[in-house]
Amino acid sequence: MAFKSSETKTQSNGDATRGRVIRVSLDKIIPNRYQPRTEFDEKSITELSQTISEHGLLQPMVVRSYQDGQYEIIAGERRFRALKKLNWKKVPVIVKELDDEETASMALIENVQRENLNPVEEARAYRKVLDSEKITQLELANRLSKSQSYVANKLRLLSLSDTVLEALANEKISTRHGRELLRISEHDEQDEILAKILDENLNVKQTKGLIDDHLNEGKEAEEKAAEKTTDDKSDKASKPAKPKKKPGEFDVNTSIEEVKQNIAKMKKNGTSVSFVEDKKKGFYEIDIRIHDDDLEE
C-alpha cells in the first residue's frame, strides 16, 4: 500500500499506536540527533521526492515520541527531506518507544545495511555507538552482521589527519588509499603524501610504492643520525679531557654563562633586553642593550 498526501485519516496517538502506522504533521517531526550520515545528496533527494510524488510513500518513516508533542526520526531521514520538498502537511509514521542508545543503534544499523554511508561517517558512527553504549567491537560487529576485523579497520581510519578524512569522505581517495596512509604516523606527512596522490592521480599500488619510499627515506635518515651521534661520542671520548679548575679559581666560560642566565631572568621578568654574542678572530664580543625605561634611576 502506498500512502498519498491526500489521505487525511489519523489514528489516536495513545500507547495502543506504538509500532502501528499513524499520521502526524510533518512540522512536528525533527531529524535524528544520532544520524550517522552528515552529508545528503540533494540530487538523490530530489529524485526520491519525484518518485514519491508519482507512486506515493511506500514505506512510512519510523519515529519515536519526543518532547513537546514532537517526533524524532529513527529511520527515514531521506524520506523526510523528500516530503519537505513536496510540502506534505501530514505524513504516515510508525511510532516506536526507544531510548537514546537504541535510537542511535537503530539509525546506524539502518544506514549501514543500506550501504549509503561514506567510510568516515561509518567509522564515526561506530565510535559513537561504542562510546555511548559501552559495548565492545565484537558486540557491535554482531549487531551489524559484520566481522570484528571489519569494524576495527573502519575505526582505524579515524587516526588519519582531518585533511585525509575529508578527502576520503568526498571520495577523492578510496578506503584502500586511506589504509595505506595509516602506515604514516605523522599527520603533516600524511597530508604531504595525500597531495602527491591527488596531483598525480595515483592508484593504490602506486600509493603503496610512494609510501614505501617515504618510510625507507625516513629510516635511512634515522640511521645516519644515529651513526653521527655515535661518531660524535667517539670523538669526544678520544679528545683529552680539559684540566678541571681548582675551587675558587676564576673561569671565563662560567662567567659568560652566568651573564646569559641573568639576561634570561631579566627577559622573564619583562625587561626589554637584547643579548648578542659574536666570536671573531682574536676576540669574543658581547653586546647587551637594555631600554632606558627599564633602567632604575
Question: Mind sketching the topology for me?
Answer:
Blueprint: E1 21-25, E2 29-30, H1 42-55, E3 61-65, E4 71-75, H2 77-85, E5 90-95, H3 100-114, H4 119-133, H5 137-144, H6 148-156, H7 162-169, H8 175-181, H9 187-200, H10 204-238, H11 252-268, E6 273-280, E7 283-290
Parallel strand pairs: 2-4, 3-5
Antiparallel strand pairs: 1-5, 3-4, 6-7
Helix pairs in contact: 1-2, 3-4, 4-6, 5-6, 8-10
Describe, in plain words, how this protein is organized in 3D.
Among the domains are: 15-102, Alpha-Beta Complex (Conserved hypothetical protein from pyrococcus furiosus pfu- 392566-001, ParB domain), CATH 3.90.1530; 116-210, Arc Repressor Mutant, subunit A, CATH 1.10.10. It is 51% helix and 13% strand. The chain is elongated, with a radius of gyration of 33 Å. It is built from eleven helices and seven strands. With 297 residues, the chain is of the alpha/beta class. A hairpin with a 5-residue loop joins strand 3 and strand 4 (71-75). Residues 22-112 form the ParB-like N-terminal domain. This is ParB-like N-terminal domain-containing protein. One of its GO terms (biological process) is positive regulation of sporulation resulting in formation of a cellular spore.
